[in-house]
């Protein structure tokens, strides 16, 4: 989980109450919200929303935390059930007031940044940084997070909707190849002259050496897989031509 960067305290109260602003930005959000322990960002959003509504707080602070809850992966169905359940314990009028804000928040179109944040927060593995070093071998935006660089290299690779890598080949004189473990979203894998395979979390792909192939996301979903390099002798990677838009658009 990435550290939360908050500036609202200093922006709104930095001149008037600098210590309160520091505690808000650096401690509450910078430390408490960013603790990498038993609670995910989604869990923290759920707890915070219920705590605020239980106190009858339905101002801009609740709206902010409802918007954050949506970004952190809480769906419209879930927030409706959360507030309905909590209403029996915190009071019916408080739930009514919260529903008015929640309905507005979940009716707003989701921007690309919010969709990406929601997807990233749904995974146990980090998304990582933009995959700039290999961007020339990808059609679309991708991200790379090194998980293990010793013994066996393991990377979490994330593809934005519609992104795919070029056709490529893993060469080796002995051993080698690659294993993909799908961890989130929906994607594709295809070997040359073979039908495409649609991938879901939990699927495993064993990629043999010297086989031309590509993999990436479907058109309407992010996709992440762990890429595990199989040790071998005299291994190399050969990047080939991109998967054309026509090839990709015709996938079924």
Your description of this structure?
The chain is α+β, with helices and mostly antiparallel strands and 252 residues long. The protein folds into two domains: 38-121, Up-down Bundle (AhpD-like), CATH 1.20.1290; 129-249, Jelly Rolls, CATH 2.60.120.10. 37% of the residues lie in helices and 25% in strands. The strands form five sheets. The protein has a six-stranded antiparallel sheet with strand order 1-3-4-13-8-11, with no helix packed on it. Strands 10-9-12 form a three-stranded antiparallel sheet, with no helix packed on it. The mean pLDDT is 91.
β-sheet strand percentage:
25-35%
Main sheet: strand order: 1-3-4-13-8-11
Task: Give the name of the CATH architecture of the largest domain.
Answer: Sandwich
Over the alpha carbons, how many angstroms does the gyration radius reach?
22 Å
Helix content, binned percent: 25-40%
Please tell me the overall pLDDT: 91
* CATH fold name of the largest domain: Jelly Rolls
Please describe the biggest sheet, giving its number of strands, its sense, and whether it closes into a barrel: 6 strands, antiparallel
Could you give the distance between the termini? 35 Å
Q: Considering the protein shown, what is the CATH homologous superfamily of the largest domain?
A: Jelly Rolls
Low-confidence stretches: none
Tell me the name of the CATH class of the largest domain: Mainly Beta
Shape: elongated
* Helix and strand pattern: HHHHHHHEEEEEEEEEEEEEEEH
Count of domains: 2
Structural class: alpha+beta
Counted by DSSP, the helix tally is: 8
Beta-strand segment tally: 15
């Amino acid at each position: 989980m990435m550290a939360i960067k908050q500036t609202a305290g200093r922006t709104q109260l930095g001149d008037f109450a600098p210590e309160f602003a520091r505690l808000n930005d650096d401690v509450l959000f910078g430390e408490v919200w960013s603790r990498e322990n038993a609670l995910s960002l989604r869990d923290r959003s759920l707890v915070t929303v219920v705590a605020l509504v239980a106190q009858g707080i339905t101002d801009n602070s609740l709206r902010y935390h409802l918007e954050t809850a949506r970004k952190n992966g809480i769906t419209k169905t879930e927030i409706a059930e959360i507030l309905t359940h909590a209403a029996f314990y915190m009071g019916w009028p408080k739930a009514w007031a919260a529903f008015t804000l929640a309905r507005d928040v979940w009716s707003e179109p989701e921007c690309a940044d919010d969709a990406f944040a929601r997807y990233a927060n749904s995974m146990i593995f980090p998304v990582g940084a933009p995959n700039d070093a290999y961007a020339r071998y990808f059609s679309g935006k991708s991200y790379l997070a090194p998980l293990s660089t010793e013994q066996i290299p393991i990377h979490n690779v994330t593809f934005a909707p519609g992104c795919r890598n070029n056709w490529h080949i893993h060469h080796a004189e002995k051993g080698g190849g690659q294993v993909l473990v799908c961890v989130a979203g929906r994607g594709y894998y295809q070997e040359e002259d073979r039908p495409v395979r649609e991938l879901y979390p939990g699927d495993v792909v064993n990629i043999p050496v010297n086989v031309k192939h590509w993999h990436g996301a479907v058109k309407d979903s992010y996709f992440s897989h762990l890429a595990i390099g199989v040790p071998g002798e005299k291994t190399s990677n050969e990047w080939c031509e991109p998967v054309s838009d026509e090839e990709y658009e015709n996938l079924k």
